[in-house]
């Protein structure tokens, strides 16, 4: 297979400034990742789309649900065999009640854009199912409950034993917005008295709402994974865990997402090509050594578990 014909990325950092859900390190995470992609993985800066909720006056696109999905759709629509695609999300995640039969007490995973127009595991499944054969699409989600963010993707690395936080000198926030808080916020936008989150999302966002809330139940259940597919998910934690947003209180250090920082450290300290499995296992070790109570996971096909992370090019390959 021809590797790295085009290298494209969508990087999304959501800090939710001036809200009760404010985080501090998410924009730093994706800006730092942009540099890693360019310097170490041969990405052309013109093929990297950056979406953040930086203060007014920035020329960047705001990461609303519609804008994030539009950026991902452009990337997938422009892909062909041999292309490498990468989506890095740093921000809040949440869990929503599952609509699938037999899953009355189960929950599905979603990320929370700045406008609360949720992007769900089924949206990512739909993207993966659209990938041209011979491409690679890697998602790195530094958010709470990010395990399983590609619906029906095979778990390669799951939960291990929990390591307690060691109380380092940092303030930290959990990168999660509970379902009831999401529901309360959406209810304030629609003024509709219902606990059905899909009703609120469809009322306020219309066709821009997640496909999970637009399709009837029988069509949702017909969404199957293509086996094997080209989707690869590196999640900051297991589906029932939270991810940390760190804000150092000493030395003037920058705020950062614990998982994003761990992955970047692993990549910078290992100039040679690493497999997706190696990246996740090494990031786990970094987090364990720092005392974090989260366990990154890997979801992909057996072949992609051993494939090089982002098909890292050799020195004689151009982007």
From TrEMBL:
Q: State the superkingdom.
A: Eukaryota
Where the record annotates domain Peptidase C14 caspase, the positions are 6-301
Q: Which residues form the signal peptide?
A: none
Extract the InterPro entries matched here.
Metacaspase, Pept_C14_caspase
Record-stated family: Belongs to the peptidase C14B family.
Protein's name according to its UniProt entry: Peptidase C14 caspase domain-containing protein
**Biological classification of the source:** Eukaryota, Viridiplantae, Streptophyta, Embryophyta, Tracheophyta
